[in-house]
Write a structure and sequence with these properties.
The chain is built from 10 helices and 12 strands. With 311 residues, it is of the alpha/beta class.
Length: 311
């Protein structure tokens, strides 16, 4: 197939998807937003012939998509709370939970995100907990620090502080100076992988409807269990008792830390390979592309694609 991907520069999952599509023999052109415009081809993109155009730019493509004569689909990678009054074309959700604010939208599939199998290696684990993400009210690093303290473990925190979250960071900054806390700031990909490989578990104590939570599968790829609060997509991503534990309170999370010896790091990595590989993600998207392109060719309305995420 000839596939166009329209994506923001910081969406690494689109890069993984593109690599797998090319490896499977598809012809893929990527148009990135948020960068200086250059002339990447000899003719205007609107004159190129694609079988499908896949948008990954939250909130931008709905008007554009309606003007295209080429079949197109949009994947949102963020939350949908602010989209209640907007009309979309064919949509793919990255979790079933992501659909909750817009249950009646034109959903054609749910496809969980995936990572290349060689991006991370299974690690031995260690004597500390890890927190990776943002310092923000919804990510609740304060919970992570309390869980580690109650469990008698150190915690290493790899997190960035966005401008919008500076007030929250100032409020919880004293917690980052506690003796059992090591604040590492924002890490690059290699250092983050090393952090996760050697952690006893990733703590994911969120307090918001997380659409997916990619760092959870980063951890699983390292063989590292995840202790996640039940919110958003976490029950879809974490196999409770297999790849970690889904909890609903700090005391329950502390008890989960004590049960980590029940989790096999080999099984965590194996489950990642089965459920969250980039190759699986690409196959699922090709299934959607073929269905939408076929429906357009027959001038039919695309029907709901079978749910592609395992239970």
């Amino acid at each position: 197939m000839k596939i166009a991907q329209v994506a923001a520069l910081d969406e690494r999952v689109v890069s993984y998807l593109t690599q797998e599509l090319v490896a499977e023999g598809h012809e893929v052109t990527v148009f990135e937003t948020g960068v200086r415009l250059v002339a990447p081809c000899a003719e205007a993109p609107r004159l190129e012939q694609f079988d499908i155009v896949h948008f990954h730019v939250d909130g931008v493509p709905d008007a554009m998509a309606r003007r295209l004569t080429v079949p197109n689909v949009t994947t949102f990678h963020g939350r949908l709370d602010s989209t209640a009054d907007r009309d979309f074309g064919a949509l793919v959700s990255i979790s079933r939970a992501q659909r909750d604010p817009r249950p009646d939208a034109n959903w054609v599939a749910t496809i969980h995100e995936g990572l290349p199998l060689d991006l991370h290696e299974r690690g031995p684990g260690g004597d500390y907990l890890a927190f990776v993400g943002r310092i923000a009210a919804e990510t609740r690093v304060d919970r992570a620090i309390e869980i580690a303290a109650s469990a008698g473990l150190r915690i290493k925190i790899a997190a960035k502080v966005d401008r919008a979250d500076r007030d929250y960071h100032q409020r919880i900054e004293p917690l980052l100076d506690r003796p059992h806390v090591e604040f590492l700031g924002e890490l690059g990909a290699r250092d983050t992988s090393e952090l996760l490989r050697n952690a006893r578990a990733l703590v994911f104590p969120i307090d918001w409807p997380e659409p997916f939570g990619r760092v959870m599968i980063d951890a699983m790829a390292c063989g590292t269990p995840v202790i996640a609060f039940r919110a958003g997509a976490t029950p879809e991503v974490v196999d409770d008792g297999v790849t970690g534990f889904v909890v609903e309170s700090i005391p329950e999370a502390v008890r989960a830390v004590a049960r980590l010896d029940q989790i096999s790091r080999t099984a965590v990595r194996r489950t990642f390979e089965q459920r969250f590989s980039a190759a699986r993600m690409a196959r699922d998207y090709v299934h959607v592309y073929e269905q939408l392109a076929g429906a357009a060719h027959r001038r039919e309305q695309p029907r709901q694609v079978t749910d592609l995420c395992p239970s």
